[in-house]
Amino acid sequence: MSKLLDWPSEFLAHRKGLLPLIGILLIAANLLVQFIFPGWLASTNLLLHIGLIVAIFGLMLAWAL
Fold first, then answer.
1. In 15, 19, 21, 55, which residue has its Cα 20 to 30 A from 29's Cα atom?
2. Nearest-CA neighbor of 24 among 56, 46, 65, 62?
3. First CA to last CA across the chain, in angstroms?
4. Looking at per-residue confidence, does 64 or 37 come out higher?
């Protein structure tokens, strides 16, 4: 279990802005989906919610590391 968590923590320790950047890209992708592909994905705002969770988690993780 330790080795399973060791690699991601070492990877993200040197790339503190990666998760917030991925979250922002998901939020921007949600904006594009709203206009280009109307349907279930656009009506649920799934990418918006996932992007927000990833960005907040990334900020908290970067602060801890």
1. 15
2. 56
3. 19
4. 37
